[in-house]
């Protein structure tokens, strides 16, 4: 704010001094004496302006950096529950573009809001020094401006909200059709689709022109008021100088120097208001962005607060007692359930979608708040240090993701210190070694974006290799075969059976094909053990 | 079919010449009014003061200048309103043109790779960026050059020395923005690259969030993202600095011009060659040029952004000319495949040395484990993937025929559009009656489901077909394909999610429809069917 004040003062100075200077140009002596000061003000103003811009830019960057970290932290705390915020693509759009959309608001609108109060007031005071009437004219017209702005602005705001959704819809339609271009081409329906794109764009143009008319009208009203006020001032000052004001005939109410000073100030008086009006869209943009971020920021991430150290060194038993998980708005995500999984026992969870299978896994992973008890051996999960607990866990999701790096790098994500021998051993265990060893670059073969180059089943087996490297005692597997065809799923299930001996395993799966090694199959929501190992063997 | 031109920035203005020239003209008039308003009111007040000093306002014609001042004020207000409307009208029109032409370009390019959702999102925002070129580059420069010339002519008319004193400084102020050109373009390119990098760096850890948290690797995995973010912010700051610095330099030059004008003016005043009023008018005209010249400093950053957007958009358009002049095959059909091998560029494996022969009325069922190359084989036959080996249709190589109206391919992830069920189906056959739609839905075992929907045929499919499950979506796409009545059908896993009895029923219906055509089905399910040849691909 100090900078801003200085900027204001310099602005005043510049105007004031230039007035004096031009007033007395007949005498060169004065010009010479004023020249350094005038130069200082004229040059100082852009310099201060420059400083102000730098400050507001770095302020905006600080805010965005911080906000982005905050959003990312919220997402990270949600763990596998991040999907409630949308797909990874839309989360990243929120994280990147939506946070960046705040820039204009912070760096311009935010500061401008204060300037709009301070500058006109200071200018009015300066004007009053010369002419009370002129200051009164300025101050009288000034509040009219925001008043009309609010009247028009409210209408424009709701209309622009509508326009934002319209724009999003048009973008969505375009995206939807472009994404499906191969299909459209196949169906010879490209022309019809192009027409649909054109129609959507045309409709969007019509609707947004309506909004823009309104928005620009508010700008025009502002402009009109400032023009009106300046014209009034000019008339008053001009006639005053001529001495033909009806109530002060023959008097010069404001001397020339003051008059010029006021006339020079008048446009500056309205400038911040006008600027605020044109920065309005920055505010609308920021509001839309914040609305998109709100669900992430408002979601009260639950923090696991346990601090006891975990005392297990083999596969533990897990006892779940009246476990219940509720989601937002009091929605029940898992009905109360009690389970007992013996040490080294391997069970599957089954049930209709939405019955809380995944939520149960998320609670065990330590990402979700729950009521009831989970006992790991003799300790309650909520008392254990999260980090130590998570080190004991191996987790696999429906689709495993990999970074665009070599196979070895991806494996070393799980175990940074693993040797080449260890890597080849786990790859042998998951039966990928014959394929990978045949490749020219072996385990240094690059995987493309999202693990391109390997089939779905191969990728899941690579994820299994990562699990093996962790040497965790508890495996939590969330439908690892959901996206695989029957034969491949069977093979993966068999492989998991071979490699998980001696571990406590909780597997969510729709199909039991190839899972004859399970000890129990538990059906949710009632938690009844429907199959035992003996039944499975009979079936097989 | 003509290959469309790549986007050129200069042709952006050509498409809507009328609208653009109108908005350029309006903008010019508005700015002219701004400059003359200030100059005239300065002259008016000084002249009035002078008149007031000499003889009490008698004989001084204040009506005409006052009327002109009012005219200027009104022109400024109305002109700005009209200019904004017309330029936005033109810009939205441009946006529409761009979307439609880009859509057509992409429709004609037959690149086998599908664009990811993110790259499409970028495409949409890139198109939105292109209107910056006319709005922020062309218009400001045109206006600035014209108005500067006018102001200089005004000075020259007042007094030659006045022009001579300020000419070099004013020209220098015009030259300042172009000096940023090189750096601005480089920065824009760098910024685009870093933004892509940042998105990638955000998406990778997000896609494997849970495991990274379990492995305590989350913090280190998001490091590259934070680095990219900071890098991008630094680049943005440099960009802003570039703008601010050139504004600073420009304003300093203008300030010096102002001082030079004063200095020169004072000597002209002393020698009586110039009146105070006219000098003030000259001074204020320069003052008003600030508003005209400042946008120039932003123009090259905008240019850089538009150019980067243009380059990315042009990269998408690898155009292939449609094969309209080739003959269409007629039944009965005979397809022979000899020693076909194909492989995706990034894939580790693919179909190898495949041979078979198929005649009208026969069905080929391809099975094998995932990764064996079933889908790649179909893509090769559909012409989406290059292959080695011989493929002939009716004893002529596949390339000999125009297949766009007789070959139908159902991919594993077909596109369901955010339209109603009926609209999605009618993409295949615009004229299909409701009865035909219900019939085809029955054939793909979706009639019961569609009848159970409250909106039946008008059920909305949701963005990316989210309202239906994967298997349903595939069968909706199958129904759509059946409506096109293609004699050759290549279907990739059409029966996903169906029990064996329904599978059998749907397969029968398919055969019924393809009696005189060819039917190739990739499936991992086994189903007994007459007139079927089975092809089993060996495992990897």
Automatic annotation (TrEMBL), chain B:
Annotated keywords: ATP-binding, Membrane, Nucleotide-binding, Transmembrane, Transmembrane helix
Domain called ABC transporter: residue spans: 335-539
InterPro entries documented for this protein: AAA+_ATPase (IPR003593), ABC1_TM_dom (IPR011527), ABC1_TM_sf (IPR036640), ABC_transporter-like_ATP-bd (IPR003439), P-loop_NTPase (IPR027417), Type_1_exporter (IPR039421)
Membrane-crossing segments per the record: 20-38, 44-63, 137-156, 162-181, 242-263
Positions of the ABC transmembrane type-1 domain: 22-305
Gene Ontology molecular function: ATP binding
Major site of localization recorded for this protein: membrane
Record-linked Gene3D superfamilies: ABC transporter type 1, transmembrane domain (1.20.1560.10), P-loop containing nucleotide triphosphate hydrolases (3.40.50.300)
UniProt cross-references to Pfam families, sorted A to Z: ABC_tran
Protein's membrane topology: Multi-pass membrane protein
Subcellular location: Cell membrane
PANTHER family noted in UniProt: ATP-BINDING CASSETTE SUB-FAMILY B MEMBER 10, MITOCHONDRIAL (PTHR43394:SF1), ATP-DEPENDENT PERMEASE MDL1, MITOCHONDRIAL (PTHR43394)
Protein name: ATP-binding cassette domain-containing protein
Organism expressing this protein natively: Rheinheimera maricola
């Amino acid at each position: 704010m100090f900078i801003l004040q200085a900027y204001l003062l310099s602005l005043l100075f510049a105007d004031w001094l230039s007035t004096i200077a031009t007033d007395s140009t007949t005498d060169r002596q004065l010009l010479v004496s004023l020249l350094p000061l005038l130069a200082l003000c004229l040059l100082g103003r852009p310099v201060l302006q420059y400083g102000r811009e730098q400050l507001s830019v770095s302020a905006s960057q600080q805010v965005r950096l911080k906000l982005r970290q905050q959003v990312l932290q919220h997402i990270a705390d949600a763990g596998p529950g991040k999907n409630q915020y949308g797909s990874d693509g839309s989360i990243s759009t929120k994280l990147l573009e939506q946070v960046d959309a705040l820039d204009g608001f912070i760096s311009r609108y935010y500061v401008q809001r204060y300037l709009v109060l301070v500058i006109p007031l200071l200018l009015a005071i300066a004007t009053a020094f010369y002419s009370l009437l002129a200051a009164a004219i300025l101050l009288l017209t000034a509040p009219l401006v925001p008043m009309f702005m609010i009247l028009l602005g409210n209408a424009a705001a709701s209309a622009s909200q509508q326009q934002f959704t319209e724009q999003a819809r048009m973008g969505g339609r375009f995206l939807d059709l472009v994404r499906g271009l191969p299909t459209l081409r196949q169906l010879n329906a490209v022309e019809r689709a192009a027409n649909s794109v054109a129609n959507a764009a045309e409709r969007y143009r019509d609707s947004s022109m309506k909004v823009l008319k309104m928005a620009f009208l508010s700008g025009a009203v502002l402009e009109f008021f400032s023009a009106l006020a300046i014209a009034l001032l000019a008339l008053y000052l001009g006639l005053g100088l001529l001495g033909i004001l009806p109530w002060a005939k023959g008097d010069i109410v404001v001397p020339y120097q003051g008059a010029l000073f006021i006339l020079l100030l008048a446009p500056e008086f309205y400038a911040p208001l006008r600027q605020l009006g044109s920065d309005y869209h920055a505010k609308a943009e920021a509001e839309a962005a914040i609305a998109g971020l709100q669900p992430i920021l408002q979601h009260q991430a639950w923090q696991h607060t346990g601090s006891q150290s975990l005392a297990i060194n083999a596969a533990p038993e897990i006892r779940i007692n009246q476990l219940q998980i509720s989601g937002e708005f009091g929605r029940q995500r898992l009905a109360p359930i009690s389970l007992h999984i013996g040490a080294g026992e391997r069970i599957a969870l089954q049930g209709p979608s939405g019955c809380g299978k995944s939520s149960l896994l998320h609670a065990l992973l330590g990402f979700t708040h729950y009521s009831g008890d989970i006992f790991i051996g003799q300790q309650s999960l909520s008392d254990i240090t999260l980090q130590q607990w998570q080190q004991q866990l191996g987790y696999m999701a429906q689709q495993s993701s990999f970074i665009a790096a070599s196979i070895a790098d991806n494996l070393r994500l799980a175990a940074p210190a693993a040797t080449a021998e260890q890597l080849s051993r786990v790859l042998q265990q998951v039966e990928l070694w014959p394929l990978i060893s045949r490749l020219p670059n072996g385990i240094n073969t690059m995987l493309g974006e999202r693990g391109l180059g390997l089939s779905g089943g191969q990728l899941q087996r690579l994820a299994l290799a990562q699990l093996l490297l962790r040497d965790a005692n508890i495996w939590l597997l969330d439908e690892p075969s959901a996206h695989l065809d029957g034969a491949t799923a069977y093979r993966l299930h068999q492989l998991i059976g071979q490699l998980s001996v001696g571990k406590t395993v909780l597997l969510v799966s729709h199909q039991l094909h190839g899972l004859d090694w399970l000890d129990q199959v538990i059906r949710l929501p009632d938690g009844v053990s429907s199959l035992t190992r003996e039944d499975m063997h009979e079936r097989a | 079919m003509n290959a469309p031109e790549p986007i050129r920035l200069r042709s952006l203005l050509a498409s809507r010449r009328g609208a653009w020239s109108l908005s350029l003209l309006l903008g010019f008039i508005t700015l002219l009014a701004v400059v003359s308003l200030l100059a005239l009111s300065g002259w008016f007040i000084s002249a009035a003061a002078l008149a007031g000093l000499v003889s009490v306002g008698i004989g001084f014609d204040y009506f005409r200048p006052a009327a002109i001042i009012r005219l200027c004020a009104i022109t400024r207000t109305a002109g700005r309103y009209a200019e904004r409307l017309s330029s936005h009208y033109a810009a939205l029109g441009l946006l529409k043109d761009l979307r439609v032409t880009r859509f057509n370009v992409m429709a004609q390019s037959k690149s086998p790779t599908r664009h990811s959702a993110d790259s499409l999102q970028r495409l949409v925002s890139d198109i939105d960026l292109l209107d910056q070129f006319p709005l922020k580059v062309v218009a400001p420069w045109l206006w600035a050059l014209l108005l500067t010339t006018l102001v200089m002519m005004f000075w020259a008319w007042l007094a030659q020395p006045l022009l001579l004193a300020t000419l070099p400084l004013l020209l220098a102020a015009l030259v300042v923005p172009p000096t940023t050109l090189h750096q601005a373009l480089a920065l824009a390119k760098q910024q685009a690259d870093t933004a892509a990098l940042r998105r990638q760096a955000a998406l990778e850890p997000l896609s494997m969030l849970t495991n990274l948290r379990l492995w305590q690797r989350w913090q280190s995995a998001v490091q590259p993202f934070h680095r990219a973010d900071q890098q991008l912010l630094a680049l943005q700051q440099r960009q802003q600095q570039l703008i601010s610095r050139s504004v600073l330099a420009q304003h300093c030059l203008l300030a010096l011009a102002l001082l030079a004008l004063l200095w020169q003016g004072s000597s002209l005043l002393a020698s009586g060659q110039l009146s105070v009023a006219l000098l003030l008018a000259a001074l204020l005209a320069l003052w008003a040029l600030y508003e005209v010249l400042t946008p120039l400093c932003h123009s090259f950053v905008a240019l850089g952004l538009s150019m980067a957007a243009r380059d990315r958009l042009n990269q998408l358009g690898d155009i292939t000319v449609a094969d309209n002049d080739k003959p269409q095959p007629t039944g009965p059909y005979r397809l022979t495949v000899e020693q076909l091998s194909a492989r995706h560029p990034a894939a580790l494996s693919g179909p190898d040395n495949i041979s078979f022969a198929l005649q009208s009325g026969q069905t080929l069922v391809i099975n094998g484990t995932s990764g064996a190359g079933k889908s790649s084989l179909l893509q090769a036959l559909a012409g989406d993937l290059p292959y080695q080996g011989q493929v002939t249709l009716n004893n002529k190589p596949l390339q000999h025929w125009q297949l766009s109206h007789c070959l139908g391919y159902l991919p594993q992830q077909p596109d369901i559009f955010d339209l109603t069920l009926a609209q999605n189906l009618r993409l295949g056959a615009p004229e299909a009656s409701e009865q035909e739609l219900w019939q085809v839905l029955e054939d793909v075992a979706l009639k019961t489901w569609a009848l159970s929907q409250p909106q039946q045929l008008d059920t909305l499919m949701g963005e990316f077909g989210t309202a239906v499950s994967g298997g349903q979506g595939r069968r909706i796409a199958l129904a759509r394909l059946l409506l096109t009545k293609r004699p050759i059908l290549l279907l990739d896993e059409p029966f996903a999610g169906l029990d064996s009895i329904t599978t059998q029923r749907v397969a029968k219906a398919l055969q019924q429809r393809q009696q005189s055509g060819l039917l190739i089905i990739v499936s991992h399910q086994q189903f007994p069917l007459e007139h079927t040849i089975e092809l089993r691909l060996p495992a990897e």
